[in-house]
Amino acid sequence: MLIATFGGRAALHLAQSEYGARVARAAKLLKHWLPVLGWMLLIAIASTDLMSAEHTSRLIRPFLRLCFPDISPATVATVQIGLRKAAHLAEYAVLALLLRRALVLPAGRVRWGLAFGIVVVCFCYASLDEFHQSFVASRTGAAADVLIDTFGALFGLAAYELLAVASRPRLHSERLRS
Predict the structure, then answer these.
(1) In this structure, are residues 99 and 118 in contact, taking their beta carbons and an 8 Å threshold?
(2) Residues 79, 139: contact at Cβ < 8 Å?
């Protein structure tokens, strides 16, 4: 239809612009979703034997003994557990923020349905992650870790929104009321 109306050049230009638009959409999708998929891959890798307590203790224990030569084995074990749980919290806070970014939510404008959806996705991925760990000989799947991961997602989203609201420039009239 365009070829008959405008000739071959117009049709070629239209085809090129449609191709360019498709490439731009694909690039935008990759820009937003590749970090999410990459982070999920890192979480999956961390669920293998590579990041088991046995392997991470080889780094944590010597570091703690270097900093605190008189530290007891019980304290080392407690610190190691605390660090591992903090890592759970942090990795799912990051995942929630990457999902938020992928959905292109403007800062300080909470869409509760999307925020809830992000937390549900993180909960489901955490559940899948712990299920996977139950099949790894050096790991154990734990429901408590799913709760920590989900709290990490909630914490990440809440902290971001609070910081976004706090750093948003206020109107002059709002400053006078404060």
Answers:
(1) yes
(2) no
User: Do 3 and 51 contact (CB within 8 A), yes or no?
Assistant: no
Question: The pTM is what?
Answer: 0.79
**Where do the domains of the chain lie?**
2-177
> Strand, helix or coil at 39?
helix
* Helix locations, 47-141, DSSP H: 53-67, 73-102, 112-133
Query: Which sign, positive or negative, has the C-alpha torsion 140, 143, 59, 67?
Result: negative
**pLDDT tens digits in sequence order for the chain, 178 residues long:** 444 555 556 555 655 677 777 777 888 888 889 999 999 999 999 999 888 888 788 889 999 999 999 999 999 999 999 999 999 999 999 999 999 999 876 665 667 889 999 999 999 999 999 999 999 988 889 999 999 999 999 999 999 988 888 887 766 555 556 5
